[in-house]
Write a structure and sequence with these properties.
Layout lengths: L9 E10 L2 E10 L4 E12 L2 E10 L20 E10 L5 E12 L10 E15 L2 E16 L8 E17 L4 E13 L5 E13 L6 E12 L6 E2 L13 E2 L2 E13 L3 E12 L4 E2 L6 E2 L2 E11 L3
Length: 310
Amino acid sequence: FAWRGREWKNTSIDYSYTWRNLHLFGELAIDQGGHTGLLNGLLVSADPKVDLSFVHRSLAPAYQAVQGNAFTENTLPSNETGLYMGASIRPLTGWKLDAYLDFFRFPWLKYRVDAPGGGRDWVLQVSYTPNRETLLYSRYRKEIKSGNIGGDSVILHTTGLIARESWRTQLNYKLTAEWTIRSRVELVWFNGAGDGTENGFLGLLDVLYKPMMKPWSAGLRLQYGETDGYNSRIYAYENDVLYSYAIPAFSGKGYRYYMNVQLEAGDRVTLWAKWAQTLFLGKKYVGSGQEELPGIAGSQFKIQLRYIFQ
Protein backbone atom coordinates (compact mmCIF):
# COMPACT_ATOMS: atom_id res chain seq x y z
CA PHE A 1 0.00 0.00 0.00
CA ALA A 2 2.98 2.35 -0.02
CA TRP A 3 2.31 5.34 -2.24
CA ARG A 4 4.35 5.98 -5.36
CA GLY A 5 5.20 9.14 -7.24
CA ARG A 6 6.46 12.60 -6.39
CA GLU A 7 3.31 14.05 -4.82
CA TRP A 8 0.78 12.98 -2.22
CA LYS A 9 -2.23 14.74 -0.70
CA ASN A 10 -3.98 14.41 2.63
CA THR A 11 -7.06 16.22 3.92
CA SER A 12 -8.47 16.16 7.42
CA ILE A 13 -11.01 17.81 9.70
CA ASP A 14 -10.89 17.79 13.47
CA TYR A 15 -13.23 18.81 16.27
CA SER A 16 -13.13 19.54 19.98
CA TYR A 17 -16.07 20.19 22.31
CA THR A 18 -16.32 20.59 26.09
CA TRP A 19 -19.56 20.22 28.04
CA ARG A 20 -19.39 20.40 31.83
CA ASN A 21 -16.96 17.64 32.89
CA LEU A 22 -16.81 16.00 29.44
CA HIS A 23 -14.39 16.79 26.63
CA LEU A 24 -14.88 15.29 23.17
CA PHE A 25 -12.28 15.41 20.41
CA GLY A 26 -11.48 13.67 17.17
CA GLU A 27 -10.26 13.81 13.60
CA LEU A 28 -11.28 12.36 10.26
CA ALA A 29 -8.58 12.16 7.56
CA ILE A 30 -8.60 11.02 3.94
CA ASP A 31 -5.65 10.51 1.65
CA GLN A 32 -5.22 10.95 -2.08
CA GLY A 33 -6.42 7.40 -2.75
CA GLY A 34 -9.66 7.89 -0.79
CA HIS A 35 -8.56 5.80 2.20
CA THR A 36 -9.63 7.09 5.62
CA GLY A 37 -8.32 7.38 9.12
CA LEU A 38 -10.69 8.10 12.01
CA LEU A 39 -9.96 8.86 15.67
CA ASN A 40 -12.39 9.84 18.44
CA GLY A 41 -11.72 10.47 22.10
CA LEU A 42 -13.47 11.32 25.34
CA LEU A 43 -12.03 12.77 28.55
CA VAL A 44 -14.19 12.56 31.68
CA SER A 45 -13.61 14.20 35.03
CA ALA A 46 -15.80 11.75 36.96
CA ASP A 47 -14.75 13.09 40.36
CA PRO A 48 -12.22 15.60 41.75
CA LYS A 49 -10.04 12.53 42.38
CA VAL A 50 -10.89 10.45 39.30
CA ASP A 51 -10.15 11.14 35.61
CA LEU A 52 -11.12 8.78 32.79
CA SER A 53 -10.07 8.68 29.13
CA PHE A 54 -11.25 6.76 26.06
CA VAL A 55 -9.79 6.74 22.54
CA HIS A 56 -11.11 4.82 19.55
CA ARG A 57 -9.22 4.70 16.25
CA SER A 58 -9.86 3.10 12.88
CA LEU A 59 -7.26 3.50 10.13
CA ALA A 60 -7.54 1.66 6.84
CA PRO A 61 -4.66 -0.65 5.84
CA ALA A 62 -4.10 1.44 2.70
CA TYR A 63 -4.24 4.85 4.42
CA GLN A 64 -0.95 6.71 3.95
CA ALA A 65 0.26 9.94 5.57
CA VAL A 66 3.84 10.98 4.88
CA GLN A 67 4.28 12.94 8.11
CA GLY A 68 1.21 11.74 9.99
CA ASN A 69 1.16 11.09 13.73
CA ALA A 70 -1.67 9.58 15.73
CA PHE A 71 -2.53 7.66 18.89
CA THR A 72 -1.71 4.18 17.54
CA GLU A 73 0.16 1.02 18.41
CA ASN A 74 1.88 1.12 15.02
CA THR A 75 4.66 3.58 14.39
CA LEU A 76 2.85 4.95 11.33
CA PRO A 77 -0.87 5.80 11.42
CA SER A 78 -2.16 2.98 9.22
CA ASN A 79 -3.57 -0.54 9.30
CA GLU A 80 -5.07 -0.44 12.78
CA THR A 81 -8.29 -0.43 14.76
CA GLY A 82 -8.32 -0.13 18.52
CA LEU A 83 -9.91 1.00 21.75
CA TYR A 84 -7.97 2.57 24.64
CA MET A 85 -9.36 3.04 28.17
CA GLY A 86 -7.43 4.82 30.91
CA ALA A 87 -7.97 6.00 34.47
CA SER A 88 -6.09 8.22 36.90
CA ILE A 89 -7.12 8.03 40.57
CA ARG A 90 -5.85 10.06 43.53
CA PRO A 91 -7.27 8.26 46.58
CA LEU A 92 -5.12 9.94 49.25
CA THR A 93 -2.79 12.90 49.51
CA GLY A 94 0.49 12.02 47.83
CA TRP A 95 -0.82 8.81 46.27
CA LYS A 96 -1.78 8.28 42.63
CA LEU A 97 -2.97 5.24 40.71
CA ASP A 98 -2.72 5.19 36.91
CA ALA A 99 -3.96 2.37 34.70
CA TYR A 100 -4.86 1.77 31.08
CA LEU A 101 -6.05 -1.05 28.86
CA ASP A 102 -5.63 -0.99 25.08
CA PHE A 103 -7.10 -3.44 22.56
CA PHE A 104 -5.90 -3.28 18.95
CA ARG A 105 -6.23 -5.14 15.67
CA PHE A 106 -4.15 -5.11 12.48
CA PRO A 107 -6.42 -5.92 9.49
CA TRP A 108 -3.45 -6.48 7.15
CA LEU A 109 0.17 -7.64 7.28
CA LYS A 110 2.80 -5.50 8.99
CA TYR A 111 6.51 -5.55 9.79
CA ARG A 112 7.49 -8.95 11.24
CA VAL A 113 3.84 -10.04 11.26
CA ASP A 114 3.05 -12.03 8.10
CA ALA A 115 -0.71 -12.25 8.73
CA PRO A 116 -3.51 -10.07 10.12
CA GLY A 117 -3.33 -10.01 13.91
CA GLY A 118 -3.73 -7.91 17.00
CA GLY A 119 -3.20 -7.84 20.73
CA ARG A 120 -3.70 -6.01 23.99
CA ASP A 121 -1.58 -3.88 26.27
CA TRP A 122 -2.22 -2.89 29.87
CA VAL A 123 -0.37 -0.95 32.55
CA LEU A 124 -0.81 -0.40 36.28
CA GLN A 125 1.31 2.21 38.09
CA VAL A 126 1.29 3.34 41.72
CA SER A 127 3.04 6.63 42.57
CA TYR A 128 3.83 8.13 45.97
CA THR A 129 4.91 11.75 46.41
CA PRO A 130 5.21 12.54 50.12
CA ASN A 131 6.87 15.90 49.45
CA ARG A 132 8.38 18.00 46.66
CA GLU A 133 11.75 16.30 46.99
CA THR A 134 10.63 12.67 46.69
CA LEU A 135 8.87 10.58 44.02
CA LEU A 136 8.53 6.82 44.22
CA TYR A 137 6.63 4.79 41.66
CA SER A 138 6.22 1.16 40.68
CA ARG A 139 4.86 0.14 37.26
CA TYR A 140 3.76 -3.20 35.86
CA ARG A 141 3.10 -3.62 32.14
CA LYS A 142 2.04 -6.59 30.05
CA GLU A 143 1.69 -6.64 26.27
CA ILE A 144 0.48 -9.53 24.15
CA LYS A 145 0.43 -9.17 20.36
CA SER A 146 0.87 -11.13 17.15
CA GLY A 147 4.31 -11.81 15.72
CA ASN A 148 6.23 -14.14 13.44
CA ILE A 149 7.50 -17.40 14.90
CA GLY A 150 10.63 -19.19 13.77
CA GLY A 151 13.21 -16.45 13.34
CA ASP A 152 14.65 -14.99 10.16
CA SER A 153 15.78 -18.36 8.76
CA VAL A 154 12.22 -19.55 8.10
CA ILE A 155 10.94 -19.00 4.55
CA LEU A 156 7.23 -19.11 5.37
CA HIS A 157 6.46 -17.82 8.84
CA THR A 158 3.60 -18.79 11.06
CA THR A 159 2.29 -16.25 13.54
CA GLY A 160 1.46 -16.54 17.20
CA LEU A 161 0.95 -14.44 20.30
CA ILE A 162 4.12 -12.99 21.83
CA ALA A 163 3.97 -11.82 25.44
CA ARG A 164 6.24 -9.30 27.12
CA GLU A 165 5.99 -8.29 30.78
CA SER A 166 7.98 -5.68 32.67
CA TRP A 167 8.09 -4.38 36.22
CA ARG A 168 9.86 -1.11 36.99
CA THR A 169 10.41 0.62 40.33
CA GLN A 170 12.04 4.06 40.45
CA LEU A 171 12.95 6.56 43.15
CA ASN A 172 13.67 10.24 42.49
CA TYR A 173 15.05 12.15 45.45
CA LYS A 174 16.37 15.70 45.68
CA LEU A 175 19.08 15.62 48.32
CA THR A 176 19.73 19.38 48.31
CA ALA A 177 19.07 22.30 46.03
CA GLU A 178 22.11 21.21 43.98
CA TRP A 179 22.08 17.39 44.17
CA THR A 180 19.47 14.98 42.80
CA ILE A 181 19.59 11.19 42.60
CA ARG A 182 17.47 8.74 40.60
CA SER A 183 17.57 4.97 40.98
CA ARG A 184 15.69 2.33 39.02
CA VAL A 185 15.30 -1.43 38.92
CA GLU A 186 13.51 -3.09 35.99
CA LEU A 187 12.68 -6.72 35.25
CA VAL A 188 11.51 -8.13 31.90
CA TRP A 189 9.93 -11.47 31.00
CA PHE A 190 9.55 -12.46 27.33
CA ASN A 191 7.59 -15.41 25.98
CA GLY A 192 7.92 -15.81 22.22
CA ALA A 193 5.62 -18.82 21.83
CA GLY A 194 7.66 -21.07 19.52
CA ASP A 195 10.78 -18.92 19.98
CA GLY A 196 11.19 -19.71 23.69
CA THR A 197 11.42 -17.49 26.74
CA GLU A 198 13.90 -14.86 27.92
CA ASN A 199 14.40 -12.82 31.10
CA GLY A 200 16.12 -9.50 31.69
CA PHE A 201 17.29 -7.25 34.53
CA LEU A 202 18.49 -3.65 34.61
CA GLY A 203 19.56 -1.46 37.51
CA LEU A 204 20.79 2.12 37.27
CA LEU A 205 21.73 5.11 39.40
CA ASP A 206 21.73 8.75 38.23
CA VAL A 207 23.53 11.53 40.10
CA LEU A 208 22.73 15.09 38.92
CA TYR A 209 24.53 18.21 40.09
CA LYS A 210 23.39 21.73 39.30
CA PRO A 211 25.04 24.32 41.58
CA MET A 212 23.14 27.46 42.37
CA MET A 213 24.23 30.62 40.54
CA LYS A 214 26.87 28.72 38.57
CA PRO A 215 27.16 28.56 34.76
CA TRP A 216 27.61 24.79 34.61
CA SER A 217 25.94 21.49 35.52
CA ALA A 218 26.82 17.80 35.26
CA GLY A 219 25.31 14.32 35.44
CA LEU A 220 26.55 10.76 35.87
CA ARG A 221 24.84 7.40 35.32
CA LEU A 222 26.01 3.96 36.45
CA GLN A 223 24.11 0.99 35.04
CA TYR A 224 24.25 -2.80 35.15
CA GLY A 225 22.14 -5.09 32.99
CA GLU A 226 21.77 -8.77 32.24
CA THR A 227 19.38 -10.23 29.65
CA ASP A 228 19.09 -13.62 27.97
CA GLY A 229 18.94 -12.06 24.50
CA TYR A 230 17.72 -9.22 22.32
CA ASN A 231 14.04 -10.09 22.82
CA SER A 232 14.40 -9.28 26.53
CA ARG A 233 16.21 -5.99 25.87
CA ILE A 234 15.49 -3.05 28.17
CA TYR A 235 15.32 0.59 27.13
CA ALA A 236 16.44 3.46 29.36
CA TYR A 237 16.22 7.17 28.53
CA GLU A 238 19.48 9.13 28.76
CA ASN A 239 20.17 12.84 29.06
CA ASP A 240 21.97 14.15 26.00
CA VAL A 241 23.20 17.31 24.29
CA LEU A 242 20.74 20.05 23.33
CA TYR A 243 18.02 19.09 20.80
CA SER A 244 19.03 15.44 21.03
CA TYR A 245 17.93 12.46 23.07
CA ALA A 246 18.94 8.84 23.47
CA ILE A 247 16.88 5.77 24.43
CA PRO A 248 19.36 2.95 23.86
CA ALA A 249 18.37 -0.70 24.17
CA PHE A 250 20.53 -2.83 26.44
CA SER A 251 20.86 -6.57 25.88
CA GLY A 252 23.44 -9.09 26.98
CA LYS A 253 25.44 -8.77 30.17
CA GLY A 254 27.57 -5.88 31.27
CA TYR A 255 27.90 -2.34 32.54
CA ARG A 256 27.15 1.05 31.04
CA TYR A 257 27.96 4.53 32.22
CA TYR A 258 27.77 8.02 30.81
CA MET A 259 28.74 11.51 31.90
CA ASN A 260 27.47 14.80 30.51
CA VAL A 261 28.26 18.42 31.25
CA GLN A 262 26.81 21.78 30.28
CA LEU A 263 28.82 24.99 30.42
CA GLU A 264 27.62 28.52 29.72
CA ALA A 265 30.50 30.81 28.75
CA GLY A 266 28.84 34.19 28.86
CA ASP A 267 25.52 35.15 27.33
CA ARG A 268 26.26 33.83 23.83
CA VAL A 269 28.24 30.60 24.12
CA THR A 270 27.01 27.30 25.55
CA LEU A 271 28.87 23.98 25.42
CA TRP A 272 27.42 20.48 25.88
CA ALA A 273 29.44 17.26 26.02
CA LYS A 274 28.59 13.60 26.64
CA TRP A 275 30.76 10.51 27.05
CA ALA A 276 29.09 7.07 27.15
CA GLN A 277 30.55 3.58 27.25
CA THR A 278 29.13 0.06 27.49
CA LEU A 279 31.35 -2.70 28.90
CA PHE A 280 30.09 -6.12 27.83
CA LEU A 281 31.01 -9.26 29.71
CA GLY A 282 31.79 -12.45 27.81
CA LYS A 283 31.88 -10.90 24.33
CA LYS A 284 34.74 -10.89 21.83
CA TYR A 285 33.12 -8.40 19.46
CA VAL A 286 30.92 -5.33 19.81
CA GLY A 287 28.38 -4.21 17.22
CA SER A 288 27.45 -5.92 13.95
CA GLY A 289 28.11 -5.61 10.23
CA GLN A 290 30.43 -2.76 9.29
CA GLU A 291 30.24 -1.43 12.86
CA GLU A 292 31.60 -4.66 14.39
CA LEU A 293 34.75 -4.05 16.44
CA PRO A 294 36.92 -6.36 18.50
CA GLY A 295 36.82 -5.87 22.23
CA ILE A 296 34.27 -5.66 25.00
CA ALA A 297 33.61 -1.91 25.00
CA GLY A 298 31.34 0.27 22.87
CA SER A 299 32.00 4.00 23.31
CA GLN A 300 30.42 7.24 22.16
CA PHE A 301 31.44 10.88 22.50
CA LYS A 302 29.33 13.93 21.62
CA ILE A 303 30.16 17.60 21.79
CA GLN A 304 27.97 20.52 20.82
CA LEU A 305 28.69 24.25 20.78
CA ARG A 306 26.07 26.96 20.38
CA TYR A 307 26.81 30.58 19.61
CA ILE A 308 24.00 33.15 19.65
CA PHE A 309 24.45 36.08 17.27
CA GLN A 310 23.09 39.39 18.51
